[in-house]
Each structure stands twice: as C-alpha cells, then as structure tokens.
C-alpha cells in the first residue's frame, strides 16, 4: 500500500449496504464535512465556472459545469454502487474534472437502486446522452465517463449507443469501472478485506442493482461478446481493488477488438483512494483524468 494512503486506512468509514437509505445518509454527511477529514483538502475552486442545475431529457436532473472557453463535453456518472450519492456528493469530483480538463461536465443524477433497478440508471444516462447531442455546441465532441459504478454505466451506454446507432461518443473515461457481476477473477476472489470496497461489498452492489435478474451486457459490460466499434477509452485500475483484474481484462479485450485504449494500473492504491487528496498518487490520478480528457476532446 502507498504509505500516504495507508496512514488514512484506520479512519476510513466502513461500507455497509444492508440499509441503502442509512448508507446514503452517511455518505451525504461525510461529503458535507468541510474540509473532509478523509480528503484532507479543501473543496475545488469554481471561480469563473458557470454551474447550472436543470432537468433534461425524460426528467433527469443534471448539474452542468461550464469552464471558461470550454471545449467538448463529458457526461459524468458518479460512483456509489448505483445506490449511493447525488449531485451534491459528486460536486467536488465533477468540479475538479471540469477544472482539470476544460470540458463541460454534465453530472447526471440517475435513478438509484434498489428502488430503481437496472435498466433505470442506464435509461436515464442514455436519455441525457441523446439530449446532450442535440443541445451542445459540438455534438461530435461528447465523452462519457465516471468512477466505479458510474464508469460501468459509461461503458454500458457506449455499448448501447453503438448497438442502437445512437449519438456518437468521442471517448469513454473509465475510472475503476464495475464491469462483471460474475466475480470470478483472481482479484475478486482474493481481495476480501480491502479498504472501502471488498468482495462482499461488490456482491451486495450487484444484488441491489439486479434484484436477482440475470445480467445482460448492458448491466455488466464484461459480458459483451463483441467490443468492436466502441469509442477510444482510458481505463484506470487500482492495485488493491477487487475490480482490478476485470478492468485490466476489459481494456485488453477492447484493444484486441481494435479499440484504442490507454490503461493505467496505479500501484499501491485501493478502490476510491483518490478521494484522499493529500496523497501524491491521488493528485497524479486526478490530474491524469483531466489531461486525458482534455486530449481526447481536443479539436
């Protein structure tokens, strides 16, 4: 473990998804702490950035971040196992992505499980993608991206847009994506006590999201037989994360299908550890997300 991250592990909250409503309250309380004891850093500055809350498409709430002289846009999808979080808890991350990339960030408040199981969240995201293609200045420079479950949604919406000849997607930014409900990889079988997220947590996430229904490739993109024709991708994995091997495997399959991919496996990190902003490796992770997106959306 990276020593700067290791020092924070005793203070990290346990993830308990047995009561989703209570878990959401805990996440909201943690996000509201300023500055966060976990992050050990102030909230990002938004000076000169236009921020707008609105409802788009089929009634989906979004928060739009417009930096000065913005170029391109990304539909940004929060993590939280499809269960936790909202526009407010995601605000620091969305603002940092906008500031680091110079892109318009459309943060999506998709419906949450288990009250709204698959495919509700995917339908919301696809509706926002369709709306963005009709309302952004340059529909040819729209990316999709997110963290964890949100990154899994981004991969799924890229598959759906390809299959349905939907709006073109320039790029997919997949940060530690949740991709495979089968949990059969080495990292899934062996990482049973990793910080913030372990095998049991991911099992609970899939149970809430699917409700016992079989997974399709739009729920678990790793199940897709054909990955050809998808947008170029950046895939980020954390060393001590049950998702590590499915993330690396998906990136390799994209490459083998002829899709351009940048893959970064961050040593010494765990799932979501970039929230510990005081660590050098976290600062590098966030800077890279912004730089990769900036390059991908360049004219």
Please provide a written account of the structure.
- With 299 residues, the chain is an alpha/beta fold.
- It has a single domain (3-296), classed as Rossmann fold.
- It contains nine helices and eight strands.
- Helix 8 (244-256) links the parallel strand 7 and strand 8.
- Helix 3 packs across helix 9 (280-296) and helix 4 (120-135) packs across helix 5.
- It starts with a helix and ends with a helix.
- The model is unreliable at 34-40 (pLDDT under 50).
How many structural domains in the coordinates?
A: 1
Write the CATH homologous superfamily: Alpha/Beta hydrolase fold, catalytic domain
Helix content: 25-40%
CATH class call: Alpha Beta
Mean pLDDT: 94
Percent in strands: 15-25%
- Biggest β-sheet strands, sense, barrel: 8 strands, mixed
**Largest sheet, spatial ordering of strands:** 1-2-4-3-5-6-7-8
Q: Tally the helices.
A: 9
Q: Write the CATH architecture name.
A: 3-Layer(aba) Sandwich
Write down the CATH topology: Rossmann fold
Low-confidence stretches: 34-40
What labels describe this entry?
Rossmann fold, 18% strand, 8 strands, 299 residues, 9 helices, eight-stranded mixed beta sheet, alpha/beta
Draw up the topology in text:
Blueprint: H1 3-6, H2 20-32, E1 50-56, E2 60-66, E3 73-77, H3 91-101, E4 104-108, H4 120-135, E5 142-147, H5 149-163, E6 171-175, H6 186-190, H7 199-210, E7 233-240, H8 244-256, E8 261-270, H9 280-296
Parallel strand pairs: 3-4, 3-5, 5-6, 6-7, 7-8
Antiparallel strand pairs: 1-2, 2-4
Helix pairs in contact: 3-9, 4-5
Quickly describe the structure:
The chain is of the alpha/beta class and 299 residues long.
């Amino acid at each position: 473990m990276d020593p700067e991250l290791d020092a924070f592990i005793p203070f990290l909250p346990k993830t308990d998804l047995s009561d989703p409503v209570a878990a959401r309250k805990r996440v909201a309380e943690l996000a509201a702490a300023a500055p966060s004891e976990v992050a050990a850093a102030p909230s990002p500055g938004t000076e000169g950035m236009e921020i707008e809350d609105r409802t788009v498409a089929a009634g989906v709430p979004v928060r739009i971040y417009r930096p000065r002289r913005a170029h391109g846009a990304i539909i940004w999808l929060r993590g939280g196992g499809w269960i936790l979080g909202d526009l407010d808890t995601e605000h620091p991350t969305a603002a940092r992505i906008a500031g680091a990339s110079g892109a318009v960030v459309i943060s999506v408040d998709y419906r949450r499980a288990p009250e709204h199981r698959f495919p509700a969240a995917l339908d919301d995201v696809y509706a926002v993608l369709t709306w963005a293609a009709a309302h952004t200045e340059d529909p040819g420079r729209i990316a999709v991206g997110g963290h964890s479950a949100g990154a899994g949604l981004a991969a799924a919406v890229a598959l759906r847009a390809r299959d349905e000849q939907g709006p073109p997607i320039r790029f997919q930014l997949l940060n530690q994506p949740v991709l495979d409900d089968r949990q059969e990889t080495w990292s899934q079988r062996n990482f049973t006590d990793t910080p913030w997220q372990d095998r049991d947590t991911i099992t609970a996430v899939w149970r809430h999201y699917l409700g016992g229904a079989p997974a399709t490739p739009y729920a678990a993109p790793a199940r897709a037989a054909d990955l050809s024709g998808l947008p170029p991708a950046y895939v980020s994995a954390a060393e001590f994360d049950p998702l590590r091997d499915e993330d690396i495997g998906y990136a390799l399959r994209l490459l083998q299908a002829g899709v351009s991919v940048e893959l970064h496996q961050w040593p010494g990190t765990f799932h979501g550890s970039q929230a510990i902003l005081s660590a050098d490796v976290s600062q590098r992770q966030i800077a890279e997300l912004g730089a990769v997106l900036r390059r991908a959306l360049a004219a």
